[in-house]
Amino acid sequence: MNMGRRSRTARAGMTGRQLLVAQVAVVGSLCAALFVKELPGIMRELRIYRMTGGLRASRRYP
User: pTM for this one?
Assistant: First the structure.
């Protein structure tokens, strides 16, 4: 009797490490897509920030 013992059969599912790698790939691709989608707005905000003086503007604009 093999009570309490599991048989060593090949599993058809994914291992924990493979699942973790797949989740990281999905989250990374979503973050990259969001960054690419928002890039024009970020560039516009940086341009406005530079036109207003950036960090040095505290002396000019109270």
Answer: 0.56
